[in-house]
């Protein structure tokens, strides 16, 4: 994963090149594809996908369902909408965080080294989202919410910054503010649902949509709540 | 059973309330779904679009319809070109490439 030190309007970007094995780059084994993002001159986030040879490709197979189109496949995690893609390229998407607690250090680097790299990358992400076109500038209405939600998520990610240490993705400190409202059994149920299911499974996906999900969640019944058990991972990458 | 119950609650409370997605074939309230099904429902939500829409999107962000083959290297990625696009192999979601800010 690489970002330029500054990602701004018509400046720099981020890219992730994927390999089957960690040693492939050193052994000069071909990569299996690259995805990238940058910001246009007028503040529009843009997505790219490249195949093994570096050629731009329209579809990427990121799951067991086969290839899906760019940028439709991107907005699931990066927020935004493709509903007006025929007339505009501004999807209202944002840069996503690099989540320390779900990324392992390669064998060539220590955990603290990785945490430091991810911390700096997350600072770049934060700054980049500040350059994305706002609603007041003519961007989609959802853009402001997505950027604000991403900022709030990143602000709550770290327990300390010198050295960088992120909360685990299951930690209660990671519960977003809208899920902290309530009291008693309701609050316990929301806390459990968030720490054991929602955050590990989806990270920011749900929060970065067009609305504030926490306000509309229907909680399970008392009988259902009593049966909720911790769920460590749902395996959604 | 425990995970199934948790997943069912998740599906009925969270997915059902997620208005920003176009989730196809949502399970009825109370239906138990597997982790794989749940994952697929999220991913299926991104399954729209066509190859032509994708090519049109690239053409517009890379300089307009009048220059459909403009090289992406103009944006700082030498060697990357829109020429001869071809399907990519499966991309591993576990990112094990070399990390680092440059």
Mean pLDDT figure of chain A: 78
Q: What global shape of chain A is seen?
A: globular
Measure the end-to-end span of chain B.
47 Å
The portion of residues forming beta strands of chain A comes to 5-15%
Round the mean pLDDT of chain B to the nearest integer and report it.
Answer: 46
Number of strands of chain A: 8
| Helix/strand order of chain A | EEEEEEHHHEEHH
Order of helices and strands of chain B: HHH
How many individual β-strands of chain B? 0
Share of helical residues of chain B: 25-40%
Domains of chain A (count): 2
* Biggest sheet architecture of chain A: 4 strands, antiparallel
Rounded Rg of chain B: 20 Å
Largest sheet, strands/sense/barrel of chain B: none
How do the strands of the widest beta sheet of chain A line up side by side?
1-2-3-4
Question: Mind explaining what this structure looks like?
Answer:
Chain A has five helices and eight strands; from the N terminus they run ββββββαααββαα. Chain A is α+β, with helices and mostly antiparallel strands. Chain A has helices spanning 72-78, 111-129, 141-155, 184-202, 222-225; strands at residues 2-3, 14-18, 33-39, 45-50, 59-60, 68-69, 158-161, 164-166. In chain A, the strands form three sheets. In chain A, strands 1-2-3-4 form a four-stranded antiparallel β-sheet, covered by helices on one side. In chain A, strands 5-6 form a two-stranded antiparallel ribbon. Chain A has two domains: 2-164, no CATH class; 168-237, no CATH class. The model of chain A is unreliable at 204-237 (pLDDT under 50). With 102 residues, chain B is mainly α. Chain B has a domain at 1-67. Chain B has helices spanning 2-13, 35-44, 51-61. Mean pLDDT of chain B is 46; it is low at 1-30 and 64-102. Classes of the chains: A alpha+beta (237), B mainly alpha (102). At the A-B interface, strand 1, strand 2, strand 3, strand 4 and strand 5 of A face helix 1, helix 2 and helix 3 of B.
